Amino acid sequence: MIHPHALVDPRAEIGADVEIGPFTIIGSEVVIGAGTWIGSHVVIKGPTHIGRDNKIFQFSSIGEVPQDLKYHGERTTLEIGDRNVFREFCTINRGTGGGGGMTEIGHDNLFMAYVHIAHDCHIGNHTVFANCASLAGHVQVGDYAVLGGFTGIHQFCRVGEHCMTGAATVAVQDIPPYVLAAGNSARPYGINVTGLKRRGFTAEGINMLKRAYKTIYKSGLRLDEAIGKIDDMVPEYGELDVLARFLKVEGRGIIR
Predict the structure, then answer these.
(1) CATH, residue 203
(2) Close Cβ partners of 10 (under 8 Å, ≥ 6 residues apart)
(3) Which domain holds residue 204?
(4) In this structure, are residues 233 and 247 in contact, taking their beta carbons and an 8 Å threshold?
(5) Which of 17, 137, 171, 237 lies at a 20 to 30 A Cα distance from 162?
(6) CB of 130 within 8 A of CB of 221?
(7) Does residue 174 fall inside a structural domain?
(8) Closest Cα partner for 107 from 146, 79, 133, 130?
(9) Residue 160's pLDDT band (boundaries 50, 70, 90)?
(10) Beta bridge partners of 55
């Protein structure tokens, strides 16, 4: 299933039923899992490990060295899970020695055209990155997050589970789980109700998340006081533990 005009390094490991299109280049230390489809004019460099049943469309660059002046050729990796889709012109960089050495992508994610994932990013499962969404280095993105087109996330920021950003959002601080964010710089606009309904959250659960949102953003409490209030609500609704734990991590602070 490898086109005769593709160039595949003999040290690459290609799984069963992998299809590789013409003029694609697969470098050494690249592992590609069974059932993965790779279109034409794709470049994949190693060390990169790609799981099963992924789809990588034309002109994507996967596993290239990081765009970081501190990188000096040290051995770093890119780890990609199963059933991800990378549309045209996606660029996914490997990690850096100073950032943990690995860029990591989970399972069942959709990366639309021109998405950029920089070095040392860690992305969960079932996320959607719309066209031209970009992550700077060291960004963490939780499960089921949705980034609108042209969203940009500043380095070292965290994007929580089940949150969503509007088009052209620029986040220079963390976006808490479940929150709808938009603007430059990003501001919170309530809970991602539509997304939560689609994922099976109950009306009662969504109301609890709304209460927690108001505790953080509308009550006038300091953040540590709001976290205490949310901790008290966790026994009533366990999903709030995800939010409470996110808020307790010291970082760039949350969007306001």
Answers:
(1) 1.20.1180.10
(2) none
(3) 196-248
(4) no
(5) 137
(6) no
(7) no
(8) 79
(9) very high
(10) 37, 85
DSSP state string for 99-110: GTSEEEE-SS-E
Cβ(92)–Cβ(74) below 8 Å = no
Stated pTM of the model: 0.97
Q: What is the pLDDT of residue 251?
A: 87
User: pLDDT digit string (tens) for 3-61?
Assistant: 999 999 999 999 999 999 999 999 999 999 999 999 999 999 999 999 999 999 999 99
Domain membership flag for residue 188 = no
- How confident is the model over 236-255, as pLDDT tens digits? 999 999 999 999 998 899 99
For 213-230, give the secondary structure using H, E and C. Answer: HHHHHCCCCCHHHHHHHH
Reduce the DSSP state of residue 93 to 3 states and report it.
strand
- E strand or H helix at 209: helix 203-217
Which of 53, 66, 166, 38 shows the shortest CA–CA distance to 107?
Answer: 53
H or E segment and range at residue 146: strand 146-147
Total domains present in the chain:
2
Enumerate the active-site residues: 119-120, 137
Average pLDDT value for residue range 125-148: 98
DSSP state of 98: G
DSSP state of 87: -
Instruction: Supply 106's token pair.
Output: 């989970």
Task: Identify which of 188, 181, 233 has the alpha carbon closest to the alpha carbon of residue 212.
Answer: 233
With tokens 């899970």, the residue in question is 81
pLDDT value of residue 233: 96
Tell me the average pLDDT of the chain. 97
Domain boundary among 114, 138, 162: 138
Contact 113, 128 (CB under 8 A): no
Domain harbouring 19, CATH code? 2.160.10.10
